[in-house]
């Protein structure tokens, strides 16, 4: 069993049940609670988190609404086997894995603008060649907002398929564009906390843990086609990287 996830000083009491739900969700997605495993009793969880039984019940209700757990009459609450393996976001160095992650996802558009907005990137990563079309979106699973993303897409590419880019995930469409041939994607991942606006969009307490991911896609000449700044719910993120051990290391 994990140690207590939260401390009294760190908690926003107005959203206590959401923080408890976030901790339990993270344990489920990381495999600490396995599929079909029974969760500890409500009273035990209340003691573990040092909160009321009502707070834990509300937290479990959130997970039940998300399809992560199910209550079995007279038996308890169990992790469902059909959702836990698909909710976690795995980041690695493969562009294909990113496309697989975005497959079937949906987005809610918050802001779109044709005003000349310039993304901020280091010149070593790519050369800006705007103007760029700006979009701000929330990415969703079936039931939960899991990411807020600011997108700068080169305007001439956007205009080639305006309807598609307005409606669908941007990177999978961009992957089909001839401009991307021979290009590359630079990805930076850091971990921080949610500001009030991000917290509201992602249904999180202020200062909850989030993953902050910046992706820059360039063409074969290093011209920037796409810049995406994405803030992910921290309880949805798993950073997994395979590192090869060079045989020369042991010599």
Describe the protein in words.
The chain has 251 residues and is an alpha+beta fold. Helices cover 28% and strands 28% of the residues. The protein is built from nine helices and ten strands. The protein has a six-stranded antiparallel beta sheet. Strands 1-2 form a two-stranded antiparallel sheet. Helix 2 (42-49) crosses helix 3 (53-65). The model is unreliable at 1-14 (pLDDT under 50).
Condensed summary:
Residues 14-82 form the HTH gntR-type domain. Helix content is 28%, strand content 28%. It is built from 9 helices and 10 strands.
* SSE-based structural type: alpha+beta
The CATH topology annotation of the largest domain reads as Chorismate lyase
* Helix and strand pattern: HHHEEHEHEEEHHHEHEEE
Overall residue-averaged pLDDT value: 81
* CATH evolutionary superfamily of the largest domain: Chorismate lyase-like
Rounded Rg: 21 Å
- Helical element count? 9
Q: Sheet with the most strands?
A: 6 strands, antiparallel
Percentage of β-strand residues: 25-35%
Q: Outline the low-pLDDT stretches.
A: 1-14
CATH architecture of the largest domain: 3-Layer(aba) Sandwich
Keywords: DNA-binding, Transcription, Transcription regulation
InterPro entries: Bact_HTH_transcr_reg (IPR050679), Chorismate_lyase_/UTRA_dom_sf (IPR028978), Tscrpt_reg_HTH_GntR (IPR000524), UTRA (IPR011663), WH-like_DNA-bd_sf (IPR036388), WH_DNA-bd_sf (IPR036390)
Pfam family, one: GntR
Domain HTH gntR-type: 14-82
């Amino acid at each position: 069993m994990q140690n207590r996830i939260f401390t009294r000083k760190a908690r926003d009491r107005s959203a206590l049940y959401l923080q408890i739900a976030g901790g339990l969700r993270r344990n489920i997605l990381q495999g600490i609670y396995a599929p079909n495993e029974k969760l500890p009793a409500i009273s035990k969880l209340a003691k573990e988190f040092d909160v009321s039984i009502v707070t834990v019940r509300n937290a479990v209700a959130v997970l039940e609404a998300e399809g992560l757990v199910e209550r079995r009459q007279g038996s308890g609450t169990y992790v469902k086997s059909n959702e836990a393996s698909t909710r976690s976001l795995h980041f690695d160095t493969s562009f294909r894995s990113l496309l697989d992650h975005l497959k079937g996802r949906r987005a809610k558009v918050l802001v779109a603008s044709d005003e000349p907005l310039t993304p901020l990137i280091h010149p070593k990563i790519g050369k800006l060649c705007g103007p760029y079309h700006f979009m701000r979106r929330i990415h969703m699973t079936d039931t939960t907002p899991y990411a807020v993303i600011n997108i700068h897409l080169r305007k001439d590419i956007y205009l080639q398929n305006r309807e598609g880019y307005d409606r669908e995930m941007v990177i999978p469409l961009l992957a089909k564009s001839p401009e991307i041939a021979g290009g590359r994607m630079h990805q930076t991942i850091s971990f921080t906390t949610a500001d009030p606006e991000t917290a509201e969009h992602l249904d999180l307490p202020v200062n909850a843990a989030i993953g902050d991911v910046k992706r820059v896609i360039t063409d074969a000449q290093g011209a920037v086609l796409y810049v995406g700044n994405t803030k992910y719910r921290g309880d949805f993120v798993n950073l997994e990287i395979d590192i090869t051990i060079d045989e020369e290391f042991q010599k």
